[in-house]
Amino acid sequence: MRSDTREPGAPPTAGMIPLAVPNIGGREWAYVKDCLDTGWVSSVGDYVTRFETELASHVGAKHGVAVSSGTAALHLALQLAGIRPDEEVVVPSLTFIAPANAVRYVGAWPAFVDVDAAFWQLDPVQLEAFLREDCTRDAGGLRNRRTGRRVSAVLPVDTLGHPCDLEPIMRLAREFGLAVVEDACESLGAHYRGRPLGQWSPITCFSFNGNKTITTGGGGMIVTDDPDLARKGRYFATQAKDDPVEYVHGAVGYNYRLTNVQAAIGCAQLENLDTFVDRKRAIAERYIESLEAVPGITPMNEAPWVRSAFWMFTVLIEEARYGMDSRRLLQALDGYGVQTRPLWQPLHRSPAHTKSFARPCPVAERLSRDALSLPSSTDLTEQQQEAVIEAVRRCANT
Ligand SMILES: *Cc1c(COP(=O)(O)O)cnc(C)c1O
Q1: What local confidence, expressed as pLDDT, does residue 3 receive?
Q2: What is the pLDDT of residues 30-67, one digit of tens each?
Q3: Which of 84, 113, 267, 334 has a Cα-to-Cα distance from 128 of 20 to 30 A?
Q4: CA angle, 211 as apex, 206 and 217 as ends, to 5°?
């Protein structure tokens, strides 16, 4: 049996249908060559500014601050939101680990709540239950009764290309005086109630890692409408350097800037973002049509109030009806040359976050056990997708 253990985002192995690979089909070469020819390769240059301006304008935000990764964007965003050590930040249990880690980088603690069963995003009902049942208000603000910590922010994560139900989350944040940092790293190009992600929270973070919808090799961005936050973000991402000549630093900053070469790739990728999202949506539509009739398979879907970017198409496998569980299907599909991946370990079960507070998260646990992401690259051919669908059908009740 073949075994493709490489990271999603790596170039395809011959014969394998990969989970998600970069699509470098635009002007990347030309823009990178321009950087090399002019010598503008490092963390200042026209492409950095251009990438920031164009991405922010694409999502309808006023400012963009390009950084070295989505994780760096989250770390900076939490610092800019004023999150302090020993405070708590509400994070969904079912997501990639980066947002929970970023909360720890500022010395705060994630408080995990469950996702909803229909669209798999941070559940506003669970958020509200946490705020009303597990917390009390006192002179210092909102406090988690069990941990005694001050609850100061919520970090909604738009996973798999699908936006969270942001309106009720924002309403609760206002009512309880919480800061909001949104992690849209997997969902660039998605819309919530007719408006792109990037306009809904005071600070939204994006990632341009190799497996994301657009890539710079590695990179991230903060977008915001607040000029002061953008200025501070840029300052902290540049070692908090106060003077263009003298090495005077007004605070402990970071080296989090994106390079001009990476931004050049980003500018070229951004020119294809709409095409990529259309393509992902077409792939999703075909998977849904072809797989929803397979007994024991439940394809992901989109809420009527969103336009999902369908970053990574994912299905649930109900072992009793399908005939095997998600991990056996992963192995079987590997044998057919199809690379798939389960979703994340629920973060309240992660050895990295055992000391954090968590409400019960049965939906996160079920999704983590039963979900499998299918090949979703924008350059997936019709024949390849047909082969994936055929393999999933063939494995049913065998
Ligand atoms: C990819 C991702 C990140 C981190 O982005 P990097 O650029 O890999 O650091 C953060 N949050 C989520 C939900 C992600 O999927």
Answers
A1: 52
A2: 999 999 999 888 878 899 999 999 999 999 999 999 99
A3: 84
A4: 75
Q: What is the 3-state secondary structure (H, E, C) of 262-279?
A: HHHHHHHHHCCHHHHHHH
Ligand 1 atom with the shortest distance to the CA of 158 = 13
Q: Give the tokens for residue 88.
A: 């708590």
Tokens 């009720």 locate to 168
Question: What integer pLDDT is reported at residue 5 of this predicted model?
Answer: 59
Question: What three-state secondary structure class fits 395?
Answer: helix
pLDDT in tens, 108-127: 999 999 999 999 999 999 99
Ligand 1 closest atom vs CA 157:
13
Distance of CA 139 from the midpoint of ligand 1 (Å): 36
Q: What whole-number distance in Å separates Cα of residue 198 and Cα of residue 339?
A: 31
Is a pLDDT exceeding 70 seen at residue 1? no
Q: Which atom of ligand 1 is nearest to the CA of 73?
A: 9
Using most ligand atoms within 8 A of CB, pick from 68, 207, 215 the residue to mutate for ligand 1: 207
Residue 135 to residue 121: CA distance in whole angstroms: 22
Nearest-CA residue for ligand 1 atom 5 is 70
Tell me how far apart the alpha carbons of residues 290 and 72 are, in angstroms, rounded to a whole number.
Answer: 39
286 alpha carbon to ligand 1 midpoint, in Å? 27
Q: What is the rounded (10 degree) CA torsion for 28, 33, 39, 41?
A: 20
Ligand 1 pocket, CB under 6 A: 69-71, 95-96, 98-99, 157, 183, 185-186, 207, 209, 220
